[in-house]
Amino acid sequence: MMHHKHYLDKKSAPYISDLLTKHFLKNPNFTEIVIICIGTNRYNGDSLGPLVGSRLSERLDGHPFVHIYGTLAKPVHALNMHKTLASITSKHSRAYVIAVDACLGQFYKIGTLQLVEEPLQPGVSLNKQLPPIGHIHIKGIINNHGQLNHKVLEHTSLTFVQEMSAVISRILVKSSQDIIPKLAQEQQPIDQLSDHLSSGR
């Protein structure tokens, strides 16, 4: 299922964050959140994911229940994606995984944020064959889909992409704040068992 709002709509952040939290609650057996922000810092248009990742790192870095992959300093892209996903699978086997990426679309949809309740298929606009990512994903339509997609990504307004990344970051921070107490409840019995064993009782 897909939900969408324009990023300039003041209701977009609360609307999409609420839907994201409700999606998590359909299967609340996860113990942590992993947010994978796909893209590169080489093209303005493709920097949406890394911009979101960098903003989230400033807000959520070091949180025991939330792990961010893909920032401007350490982007996740086609060349390192398989290695990154293998590492995430190994380290975070019970994580609720949210993917973030930029995409191209029809002209009248530029600026739309899409919440899609299925794994992300990265690289589709550029005809790349990459593995699906996440339990759910957010896409931002940053420009018009056409024959010269690489050029379109290169010449997209950076200011526009930064503004959109700020809205997506607010969505993910709010959803994380709503989901974390549920993760803590799921984690608590495990922690109590560990305490029980370590005390020898």
TrEMBL record:
GO terms for biological process: proteolysis. It comes from Paenibacillus foliorum. The lineage of its organism: Bacteria, Bacillati, Bacillota, Bacilli, Bacillales. One of its GO terms (molecular function) is peptidase activity. It comes from the Bacteria. This is Spore protease YyaC. The keyword Iron-sulfur does not apply. Keywords: Hydrolase, Protease. The keyword Protease applies. InterPro entries: Pept_HybD-like_dom_sf, YyaC. The gene is yyaC.
